[in-house]
Amino acid sequence: MILAKSRNRVSASTPPKAAGDKRYKILETQMKRFQYRQDALIEVLHRAQELFGFLDHDLMRHIAHHLRLPPSRVFGVATFYHFFNLKPKGAHSCVICMGTACYVKGADKVVAALEKEYGIKAGETTEDGKFSLATARCIGACGIAPAVVYDGVVTARQTPESALEIVKGWLRHGS
Ligand code: FES
Predict the structure, then answer these.
(1) Does the beta carbon of 51 lie inside 6 Å of ligand 1?
(2) How many helices (H) and strands (E) does the chain have?
(3) Ligand 1 and 74: CB distance under 6 A
(4) How many whole angstroms from 1 Cα to the centroid of ligand 1?
(5) Which pTM does this prediction carry?
(6) Domains in the chain and their CATH numbers?
(7) Is the pLDDT higher at 17 or at 159?
């Protein structure tokens, strides 16, 4: 009975865009490990940032729901500490998984290619504000390593060439 209740709680709070995104599942496992303790909020936010590269509003609401905290408390903590990124500043975001499986399959080369091409480091945004680059730890898609999340879409088996093509496509269309 308790389990069924808990399942409902999970699905009700999972943002619709997250359907099939294993990162939410990993984060939920992590929160469960902390027994949904409210005093684990900072650790949970850290793990969320490692998974997603930044903390957007849907994600913070999701965490607030699970830890049974008011969203304002979660937003307050996330904005207070400078090490939390609330949004990619760019119009487009590219989050490269640097977990072990992705790393051994060349994720570092994908990061290096984008850093070189756009003159930014992971965690930064291009000066024109069009593109933010971030890295994350294992996002739960090791079977399709190296995985890259382009504007929230997990994409399989990326190479420096495929990543450059996608980002160039964004910038070419100027959106
Ligand atoms: S290491 Fe990249 S998805 Fe697991």
Answers:
(1) no
(2) 8, 4
(3) no
(4) 34
(5) 0.69
(6) 21-87 (1.10.10.1590), 92-172 (3.40.30.10)
(7) 159
